[in-house]
Amino acid sequence: MPVDEHARKPSSGPTPVYLVPWDPDSQQHVDRMRLQRIACGWKVDQVEGWRDTQRKGLIGLHWVVLHPGHPETPERMERHFTAYPNEVEALSDSCAMILGRPHKREPLIPSFHPVGHIALDAVTPHPELETSLSNGTLSLMNFYISTALQSIGLGGAALASCEKMAKEEFNAKAITLETISNEECRADSPRRIAMKRPIPTVG
User: Kind of pairing, strands 111-112 and 116-121?
Assistant: First the structure.
C-alpha cells in the first residue's frame, strides 16, 4: 500500500511523533531505557522489574520517536546526540506484544532513535486510581523527553499521541496522569540539585 505523502513529509508546526513499544526482551532496548532513566534522574533501579510487567501486559512503555520526514527532525536529532552521544545507535522495532495485544509495526520506522519515553499502564502503585484494562482506566506514567529537546512541544505531542492510542486501540474511557512530586518543587531537593535543574514552575 503506498504511503500518504502528507504522512511522509509533514509541514513544520506542531511536531508529530510516533510511539514505539519498548521491547523487554531486547538488551539494546533495556540498556537504552537505563540510559534515559539516568538522564531523567530516577527509577533507574526499576528498569529490570519493568521487563516482566511489560511482558505480562501490565505496563505499556513506549519510546517517543520523531517523525522521520519532519523538516526539523535532523537538527533536533543532532542536538539530542550532542547531549547524549551514547544514544547514537538505532534501535529496531522488535516488540511483538503491547498491553496484551499484537503490536502493528509502522513501516516508516523499522529502526529508530528514541528521544524519550512514556508509559501507558494498566496497573499503578495507587489503588485509588482503579487503573485496569477491564474497567477502561489507564494511567500515563514514567514520562521523559530528552533534556536537549524540552520546551519545543514534544511533550504535548507525545501526550496527545498516547491519549489517542489509549482511546482508539485500548478503548480507554478515562486516563490518569502521574505528575511531578512535591519534593521536586522544594528549593532543597537533593535530586534536583544533583541534576543541576531549576525549580519547576507549576501552574
Answer: unpaired
Q: Residue 71 CA to chain centroid, in angstroms?
A: 21
Cell of 79: 542536538
Indicate the residue type of 125: P
Phi/psi zone of residue 51: left (φ > 0), alpha (ψ -120 to 50 degrees), beta? alpha
DSSP state of 15: P
Classify the C-alpha dihedral 133-172-24-49 as positive or negative: negative
pLDDT in tens, 80-112: 999 999 999 999 999 999 999 999 998 888 899
How is the chain split into domains, by residue range? 5-194
d(CA 48, CA 132): 22
Beta strands in 61-151 (DSSP E): 61-66, 91-92, 97-98, 101-102, 111-112, 116-121, 137-145
Instruction: List alpha helices for the chain, DSSP H.
Output: 5-8, 27-40, 47-55, 73-83, 154-170, 190-194
H-type alpha helices, 56-189: 73-83, 154-170
pLDDT above 70 as % of the chain: 76
Compute the distance between CA of residue 203 and CA of residue 181 in angstroms, rounded to an integer.
14
CA angle in degrees (0–180, nearest 5) for 14-29-94: 85
The CATH class, in words, for 5-194 is alpha beta
